[in-house]
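Protocol step 4 of 6: structure prediction from sequence.
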Amino acid sequence: NIYWRRKMINWATELKKESFPNNPKSLEIIQTHISYVFISDELVYKIKKPVNFGFLDFTTLELRKFYCEKEVELNRRLCPEIYLGVAPISETSEGYKLENDKNIVEYAVKMRKLPAEGMMKKLINDRALTEKHLDLVVDVLVPFYKYARTGKGIDEHGSIETVSFNTEENFTQTAFYVSKALNRWRYNEIVKWTKKFIRENKDLFESRIKEGFIRECHGDLYSANICFDDLRKVYIFDCIEFNERFRCGDVASDIAFLSMDLDFHSYSELSEYFVKSYTEKSNDQDLMKLLNFYKCYRAYVRGKIGCFTSDDSALSEEERKKALETARKYFDLAYLYSEGKPKLFVVFGLPGTGKSTLARALREQTLAEWIPSDMVRKALVGIAPTEHRYEPFEKGIYSKDFTEKTYMKMIELARENLLRGRDVILDATFRERVYREAVMHELKFADIYWLWCVADDVVIRERFMKRKESEDISDARWEIYLAQKEKFEIPEEIARERLIKIDTSEGKVSIEMILEMIF
């Protein structure tokens, strides 16, 4: 396994165009967590990595050949003209050769190249996707599901036992990534909600089986696997071949996947249109009762894949970081589908009371988006966070008008993140009640907690002395602290159960203890 993976990595990075039939003029290599995809002028070759993730096993040449053949067979259901067959790969004295059956060392799925400009992912990125595109998808899916295999051997995949196994497998396989890709309470809440939904909807799951909605589906129905030939034809490709349990199931799970994907890319209106159009044309009204459950499941699966990708040593550090951040975004969405309420932590208090130190530590524990006023304020005037503007009290970029702009921008940024399901930390003085009330009004859909930092004057003065020797982004000084102290409005408007007063005079504060007080 390790030997062949290394050879494949070397081949992927040192591949010559001469290895391919017809000497292509161009060659692009794309890597996923389970495949290498080679895109030439007119053809595409897809090679499976020798990996074992538990839910798939490509660790032997025989298994990779088998699943290449299975991939072609299954995808010809929707794209018979695209999937051409399985091509052998040989190692010769002149290097690797595709479609050569002497000394075979690997196999590849051979496909016709689809138009790059028609890829749904590109249309989404270009904000060019329309209802007409989705009409094409629906018109293909309705008859596809109607005639897809069902009955014995398929129906079992829609049972409570299988659905529970699938979700539990996700939770087991992502337990290692708790605190890396999602925090502990989000993980627990998604697990709890999922189990409760399955338990309380036993009759619904059983009726779906009886009514014939469990089918041999696509299994991976999202934008990366859909391509349009203008508005004449749609190609839905790359279904799940490696695990029947993931491919077979309720058609609601397939529909939920694409709907979730549209939500993920901020196409919520088209997501609703797609589901409405499909349910009307298929006459599957009960699908709506399962939609959020399967959206949560699908978002969680994508998060899991992002986690696995972030551990792929064949990728660069930047690619792995990007994969982990993508996983976090999918887990955020799964949390929203599970009826979770994003949390907003407002860390506030006078300068020097340790707000930012606490906020940064809280970010490490919660994976929340940190929005400090110092950075927002300086971004509004186009200067670096570390560039100092030592203005007099309430002058320059610290004037009342500019402070109001800063707080309004912070609230705007918080709203964007919270609506996507991300927890947020606001880090600012919030000395005036009006700004605290603005947060409570504008962001009332979030679960808000206020962490009020205080410290003794003598401690704060010492901290300001030390700041002169550091690269702290704050412009506050001792005289600013004294001026703000006189104008600080006690937060009497905040409910006692939502307010935690934290004395930082002794130094380090236990984030674990704070979170225990909240939860």
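Step 5 (inspection) to follow. The two ends are 45 Å apart (CA to CA).
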